[in-house]
Amino acid sequence: SPLPAIIWRKQTNAPNKFMGSGVLPAGAYVTLEHEYVLILRKGKKRTFDTEKDRAHRQESALFWEERNQWFSDVWFDLKGARQDLADKETRKRSGAFPFELPYRLINMYSVKGDTVLDPFMGLGTTLLAAMAAGRNFVGFEIDRNLKGVIETQISAVTDFANGYINERLKRHQAFVEERIQNDKPLKHRNVHYGFPVIMNQEKNLKLDFLKSVQKKTADCFEVEYTDQPVLSAGSIQEPEGGTAGT
User: Fold this and answer.
1) 185 in any annotated domain
2) Rounded CA gap, 159 and 165, in Å?
3) Cα–Cα distance for residue pair 52/44, rounded to 1 Å
4) Which of 6, 155, 191, 227 is the Cys-Cys partner for 37 at CB 3.0 to 4.6 Å?
5) Cβ contacts of residue 47 below 8 Å, gap of 6+?
6) Res. 6: pLDDT tops 80
7) Does the residue 149 lie in any domain?
């Protein structure tokens, strides 16, 4: 069944973005700078009946301020992605988009340990987002020229994803500091990081850092995650210690 859609306001700075007759009236047409993100649900609303399922859901919570931004029906803050492929035919077929787009959607509509399916992998951006979010992934891509590009992306995902997770946590810290300065209450505290949060549902939120990515077969990779996040000296650091694989 269809759920409310999202309009992605995809800004572009291309010099030819205004098509038609320049600044003269009548001949030009409106620049198309948005795309629709369709949200569909198969079956009834999902339930979480076991203790394990409920724990995964709680760890997969969003920050209150993220929820308010991400569950808006218009996204203004995501820029389009460049098409940097050398092969012209492959570049024509590629529909590159920013990492943040699938990362948001994966976090909004799944929990840790779920499986993300992408039948049109392209450059593998959704794969990287699934890895960063602690989800399993199955993908298909008909263009064999993109396999090397995807594997190059995977080789760099650990540092990239951990940097992104760091920034996500730092953004929450900045949000907390601003609320405190404005004398706005934060009644709850996250049990993993120790920082204040708005809602009780955020107290078990945990973002797992990537420890390693290993190639198991020609088309299969396994990610190992650290399971003890650490908040130190005003910044988030990748923790040492235990791991959890997916």
Assistant:
1) yes
2) 10
3) 21
4) 6
5) none
6) yes
7) yes
d(CA 202, CA 196): 9
- CATH number for the domain spanning 240: value is 3.40.50
Number of domains the chain is built from: 1
Per the domain annotation, does 86 fall within a domain? no
* Residues sharing a CB contact under 8 Å with residue 79, sequence separation 6 or more, in sequence order: 10, 11, 98
Report pLDDT digits (tens) over 181-233.
999 989 999 999 999 999 999 999 999 999 999 999 999 999 999 866 545 43
Quickly list DSSP for 97-135: --THHHHHHHHHH--TT-EEEES--TTSHHHHHHHHHT-
Residue whose token pair is 């004398």: 183
Does the predicted model carry a pTM greater than 0.90? no
Q: Is 234 left (phi over 0), alpha (psi -120 to 50) or beta?
A: left
Q: What gap in Å lies between CA 166 and CA 236, rounded to an integer?
A: 6
Domain presence at residue 87: no
pLDDT tens, residue by residue, 53-64: 999 999 999 999
Domain span at residue 44 reads: 2-80+92-245
Burial (CB count <10 Å: 0-12, 13-18, 19+), residue 42: exposed
Contact between 125 and 99 (Cβ < 8 Å): yes
